[in-house]
Fold each of these.
Amino acid sequence: MTSSATPGSGDSTGSPGQPDRGGSAGSPGQAAGLGRRAAAIAIDWLVALLLARLIPGAEYGTGDYALATLTIFAVEIILFTWLTGSSFGQRVVGIAVVKQDDGRLSLWRIIVRTALICIVIPALVYDSQKRGLQDLAVGSRVVMRTSIGMSR
């Protein structure tokens, strides 16, 4: 049986001849644990905090600093996920974000997912498959990079 992905979209590894991964529970993409996910988001937030310190006029504890931190956090997640399939923090801990059928996420899905993460609540609510509301909303899931053939 073939995947429901559009022709030519390829899989998340970009390697030809990869087996159909499908979106079923038997898919080889092993779900990432909540500990790794929490570590990844903490790394992304720490990087955003540090980069926000470099912005002139944005002093720690001010509204400008908070807005700069959140903006950097969102832009970093969107760019890195779009380009590599993982945010910086996710890449460090060895996890990736893929479509439910294991393909790459489109830019609009990444933007919506990141916006939902930025409002926090969706990321705290998840289902039995460890998918947060942000993943359910855009049809994505977070998996171990090595379980889908991606290098760390």
Note: The first helix runs from residue 34 to 52.
Amino acid sequence: MGQMLGFVVIAVEYLVVGLMAAAGTILVGRKIFSPRQEQIFYAMFLIMIAGFYLAFSAYFQAASAAWRLETIAISVFLVLGLVGVRFPSALIVGYSMHGLWDLLHEFQAHGAWSAFEPGRLTAIPLAYGIFCLAFDLCVASYIVTRRAEWIAGWRVSAAAGELQNQSAFSVNSPADL
């Protein structure tokens, strides 16, 4: 009973810390980045956090089957992050999938449920999956709210570049000189 109570307390604390970390990331990112820069930041951050699973594989000395599966998963998150540099929908999918991937690891770590046979997923620190699920779903929800502004940011940038190109290639008439 005491062990279960301890886990519940740890899980709730990690959930709260995950939400607070997401809130801090969102507030700071919104303050220091333009909409385009913010989108690029979240795309690169998705790639970075997916990389934790390779570190966990090394640290926990995962079996080769786990290395293969984690490498495939990280490759998917890498592609979603790279596509997400330009298309926010890829980030919404990527962060949501990453949160579910984290939760899947958490379930397996506690023997609750696993979609894979033993040894196929990398071990993770206690309640890490709960922290990441909270963080990832909060960020995915935030991206939903910023999506239109990020898309508009790319359009404004493209229009500004087009105007700059037009003025660079315009021929001045003798009257302008």
Note: The chain has a mean pLDDT of 87.
Amino acid sequence: MARQKSLGDLEKQVMEFLWQHGPATGDAVRAAVGKDRPLTDSTIRTVLRRLEAKQYVRHEMEGTRFLYFSTRESSNVAAEAVRSVLKNFCRGSLEELLTGLVNHRVVKSAELRRLAERIEAKERERIEGLERNQERKGKKA
């Protein structure tokens, strides 16, 4: 997958709005994101065009107005950001990242253990599902 360009602060705010509220017009985006600081229509249109160029957003015509949609789920964007951190700061090592998070008290080791148990359970479910599918295929043959 091609490396995605990072998002600026205003771009992140726009994406957060679209992820939370779904498709919206430029006016709706400006009204919501511009609560903390005044934004011109031109500024929001520029941000939305940039997000389209970065393939985070697409638009469709709704009458005479553009309706903007997020093209990517927030969880996928977050995963790509973590992948970038791994590559750029941890020499690609997930272990180094997680150890650093525990060492700097960002994440508690108990929380990592709970996550590891959940991951193991999901992996067992996945393997059991594959085995059931193989058994069904064998019976049909």
Note: The helical segments are 9-21, 26-33, 41-53, 74-89, 94-103, 109-140.
